[in-house]
């Protein structure tokens, strides 16, 4: 090494550089005379023996109330298992309401629970598969979607062949309850279920409040959406779910569904619609002529509305009424006084008696019905009177406020302060009477009323109000008999017209066909609406069901004429062959 600090070394070689002398740069590398850097880094002992200290970081300790909360809800298979248990708990509440509050036989509980057991049996493999991800994506649920979209997606992608392997929903629970009713052959219609759901007598809207908070808090948001539907029961989706369940259970387990209890249902329709007894036998005879056995056959070709036994029965009854007691008011004279169509119903008086009986039974003094309250929007609120606003606020408190969760709000919290500023009082007696069974207001009648999440009135007034609500919804046996008596008292008989008078309209002539709901006359619409409400169909479904029956009647007539012509032709052939040559 020279005095100038240069070091002699090998030839640089970079860009054919021939320099052999190097100097140490400030960065610790060696550089040749031409500025080319040599690759090695020089290391020398530290004269000051400096060692860098270990870097440490100090954090301020957070208070206990600011600690990061651990995620409480379950995921995957564990969440799906909890969802099934929550749904089963709601199903038990529904069965309890049907048996203990609505008076159905206790055997219904055993039948429905057995159907539930075989419904979830194919899900055993899904629950035991630990590696499968059952989060919101795998279940096909979206927490932002409402229950209607979730149901439509499940029905669209899981037809009846795979129905048992999909996740059950609240609609499945209602369908299982109805299948239990059909199995026991009870005279209960889907219209009754729709009415009970709307009035809150069966848990459906806000059904998640029947689940304890300890279970609710661990359910993911997508399962909350399924257990807390935000719309009333849709009858078309109910029948679709019902048909899928019937087909799946029939295919997988060989279950043969019994026919509807036609005698009791026909008697009930006649009594509630205030119709003559002649309709009873005529409906049965028409169904027999058309080959309707009133048995669910969801695996057949006519799986939808045309094959529903409930639709076939009510449509046959409506067709018989249109033939024997038409709505147009024209006189059609029978040939003898023994014909069923000899009586004429005053349909204006019929509608008047039905409406007055309902108004008389509704002694609650409320302006809105339950279904109207569920469908209230912003425009309706702006035009409400003070009494209507009170009724709606009481309805909102009983159906949308979760007081079980509000009770857990810490003292001095935001919601606690807010509710102290605007305290909520118990509904008035009239409102409680009108809504004693709305939403989940009947939670005190269930075994776990503490999980209902709603403020409960005292026990004694509660029972009294619930009875009053039942009177509001139905006319009762005495009221129905009063309507029947009033309608039949104003019915007038027609005189018999013999065969000689050929220019007289006969019963069945001038039959009116209504292909669409808009074509219905005023009187026909009133009768259709009442029949649809009792049977559990929308107006559109009833009109279509009647059209299907009328088409089947034309097909039956055409086949009968063809058979008659064939018999006549065969007779002539036999006669011709029997002649002597």
From TrEMBL:
Comp. bias (Polar residues): 442-451
Domain of life: Eukaryota
Name by which UniProt lists this protein: Uncharacterized protein
Residues in Rrn7/TAF1B N-terminal cyclin domain copies: 87-212
Subcellular location: Nucleus, Nucleolus
Any one Gene Ontology molecular-function term assigned to this protein's record: RNA polymerase I core promoter sequence-specific DNA binding
Family: Belongs to the RRN7/TAF1B family.
Keyword annotations from UniProtKB, A to Z: DNA-binding, Metal-binding, Nucleus, Transcription, Transcription regulation, Zinc, Zinc-finger
Organism annotation: Massariosphaeria phaeospora
Any one of the GO BP annotations: nucleolar large rRNA transcription by RNA polymerase I
Keyword Ribosomal protein carried by entry: no
InterPro entries: Rrn7_cyclin_C, Rrn7_cyclin_N, TAF1B/Rrn7, TF_Rrn7_Zf
Comp. bias intervals (Basic residues): 462-472
GO cellular component: RNA polymerase I core factor complex
Annotated RRN7-type domain residues: 7-36
Pfam families: Rrn7_cyclin_C, Rrn7_cyclin_N, Zn_ribbon_RRN7
Rrn7/TAF1B C-terminal cyclin domain mapped to chain residues: 235-400
Region of interest (Disordered), residue spans: 42-68, 427-477
């Amino acid at each position: 090494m020279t005095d100038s600090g240069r070091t002699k070394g090998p030839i640089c070689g970079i860009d054919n550089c021939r320099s052999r002398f190097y100097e140490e740069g400030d960065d610790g590398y060696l550089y040749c005379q031409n500025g080319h850097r040599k690759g090695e880094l020089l290391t020398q002992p530290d004269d000051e023996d400096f060692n860098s200290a270990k870097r440490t970081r100090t954090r301020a300790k957070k208070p206990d109330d600011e600690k990061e909360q651990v995620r409480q809800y379950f995921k995957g298979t564990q969440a799906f298992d909890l969802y099934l248990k929550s749904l089963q708990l709601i199903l038990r509440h529904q069965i309890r309401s049907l048996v203990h509050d609505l008076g159905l036989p206790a055997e219904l509980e055993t039948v429905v629970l057995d159907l539930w057991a075989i419904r979830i049996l194919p899900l055993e493999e899904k629950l035991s598969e630990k590696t499968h991800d059952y989060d919101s994506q795998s279940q096909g649920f979206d927490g932002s979607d409402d229950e209607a979209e979730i149901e439509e997606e499940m029905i669209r992608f899981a037809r009846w062949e795979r129905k048992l392997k999909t996740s059950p929903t609240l609609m499945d629970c209602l369908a299982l309850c109805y299948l239990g009713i059909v199995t026991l052959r009870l005279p209960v219609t889907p219209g009754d279920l729709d009415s009970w759901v709307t009035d809150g007598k069966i848990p459906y809207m806000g059904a998640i409040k029947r689940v304890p908070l300890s279970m609710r808090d661990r359910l993911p948001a997508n399962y909350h959406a399924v257990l807390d539907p935000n719309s009333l029961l849709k009858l078309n989706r109910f029948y679709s779910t019902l048909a899928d369940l019937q087909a799946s259970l029939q295919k997988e387990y060989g279950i043969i569904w019994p026919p509807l209890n036609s005698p009791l249902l026909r008697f009930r329709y006649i009594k509630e619609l205030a119709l003559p007894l002649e309709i009873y036998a005529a409906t049965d005879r028409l169904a027999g002529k058309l080959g309707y056995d009133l048995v669910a056959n969801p695996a057949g070709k006519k799986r939808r509305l045309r094959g529903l036994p409930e639709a076939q029965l009510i449509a046959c009854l409506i067709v018989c009424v249109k033939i024997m007691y038409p709505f147009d008011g024209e006189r059609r004279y029978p040939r003898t006084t023994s014909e069923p169509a000899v009586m004429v119903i005053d349909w204006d008086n019929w509608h008047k008696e039905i409406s007055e009986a309902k108004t008389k039974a509704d002694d609650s003094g409320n302006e809105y019905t339950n279904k109207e309250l569920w469908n209230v929007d912003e425009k309706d609120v702006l035009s409400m009177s003070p009494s209507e606003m009170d009724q709606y606020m009481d309805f909102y408190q009983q159906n949308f406020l979760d007081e079980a969760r509000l009770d857990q709000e810490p003292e001095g919290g935001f919601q606690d302060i807010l509710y102290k500023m605007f305290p909520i009082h118990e509904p008035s007696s009239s409102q409680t009477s009108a809504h004693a069974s709305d939403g989940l207001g009947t939670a005190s009648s269930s075994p776990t009323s503490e999980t209902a999440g709603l403020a409960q009135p005292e026990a004694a007034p509660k029972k009294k109000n619930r009875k009053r609500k039942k009177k509001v919804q139905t006319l009762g046996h005495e009221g129905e008999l009063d309507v029947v008596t009033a309608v039949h008292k104003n019915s007038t008989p027609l005189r018999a017209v013999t065969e000689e008078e050929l220019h007289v309209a006969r019963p069945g002539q001038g039959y009116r066909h209504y292909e669409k709901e808009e074509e219905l006359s005023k009187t026909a619409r009133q009768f259709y609406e009442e029949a649809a409400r009792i049977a559990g169909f929308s107006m559109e479904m009833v009109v279509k069901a009647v059209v299907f029956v009328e088409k089947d009647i034309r097909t039956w007539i055409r086949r009968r004429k063809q058979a008659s012509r064939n018999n006549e032709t065969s007779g002539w052939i036999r006669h011709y062959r029997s002649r002597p040559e």
